[in-house]
Amino acid sequence: MKICTVLILALSIVFFSFQTDDPQKGKEFNTEKDILLAQFDCKTDVDDLHSVAAFITLMSHPDFSDVNYYAVAGAYGVQEGLYVPPNALFQLAFGDRWSDAHQYPDLAVKEVKAIIKPTLLNCGDVWIAEAGQSDFSARLIKAMQNDLPDIDTKKHIHIVQHSNWNEDVTSEEALKYVKQNADYKKIPDGNEVGNGTPGFRTPDYTDWKKQLKDPKLKEIWSVAIELANKYNGKDGRYNNEAVESGGLDFSDISETCYILGIQDIKDSKQFFKDFGR
């Protein structure tokens, strides 16, 4: 009897420790309460332009039309190279639901803080799909903590990252800060197929026009591809070979798919088949 009691007590301690060590385990995006921030660095790879088009394609689908979202351009870190001007695309895709952290970094923090504040005050969570680096996220979290010191940002702000390179060119201080002050999740790279997340870097995929039925989405994708072709590899910018070959690279959307629970998509072809219609 004593042995049984000790065993039960030991199992209870192990279970409790497991629960407290991973408080976010099983947490999912709640459409009714949460907000999704889509942050794009746009420096110096043009893949963000394709990713913007893919993101708004998802948001336009009936399954996700109720998602509360907001976008940020220029959420980059310490990498060298020129910026890829995305404003025309962001305006077309997002209207007034985005901020320019490249040209107006301080204003962008204030704008995004004002956007997410009601969510946190109403016991909702903030989910950041980090199509770039964590420097902007760190500034945002600090600002939020100053405004709402009683909010546990480790519990209510979730950051999803997919790229080793993005982490490498985040300032050391910012990366350390977000890992300590947010629920930071690193998922497999969205550039590859078959690693547990969708692989959206597809040099030979060109059938997106046939799959898309919405004229507005066709226009958005056309602008994204036109801008990507214009700036890809130009003036020392990174040369994206998938884009150069006429294909697509919206690998950063693997994070959004993870947040929304649709990470079982295989590749670009399946993405347009499932969400392009």
Written account of the structure:
With 277 residues, the protein is an alpha/beta fold. It has one domain (35-275): Rossmann fold (3-Layer(aba) Sandwich). It is 48% helix and 12% strand. It has 13 helices and eight strands. The longest helix has 20 residues, at 2-21. The chain starts with a helix and ends with a helix. Residues 1-24 have low confidence and may be disordered.
Strand content: 5-15%
CATH class: Alpha Beta
Number of strand elements: 8
CATH architecture: 3-Layer(aba) Sandwich
- The gross shape turns out to be globular
Helix content: 40-55%
Tally of distinct domains? 1
Give the spatial strand order of the biggest sheet.
Answer: 3-2-1-4-5-6
Q: Could you report the average pLDDT, rounded to the nearest whole number? A: 91
- Rounded to an integer in angstroms, the radius of gyration calculated over CA atoms is 20 Å
Distance between the termini: 63 Å
Low-pLDDT runs: 1-24
What composes the largest sheet?
6 strands, parallel
The assigned structural class equals: alpha/beta
Question: Could you name the key traits of this structure?
Answer:
two-stranded antiparallel sheet; single chain; alpha/beta; 277 residues; Rossmann fold; six-stranded parallel beta sheet; 8 strands
Secondary structure elements and pairings:
Blueprint: H1 2-21, E1 35-40, H2 47-60, E2 69-73, H3 87-94, E3 98-100, H4 105-121, E4 126-131, H5 135-147, H6 153-156, E5 157-161, H7 164-168, H8 172-181, E6 183-186, E7 201-202, H9 208-211, H10 215-231, H11 241-244, E8 248-249, H12 253-260, H13 268-275
Parallel strand pairs: 1-2, 1-4, 2-3, 4-5, 5-6
Antiparallel strand pairs: 7-8
Helix pairs in contact: 2-3, 2-10, 3-10, 4-5, 5-8
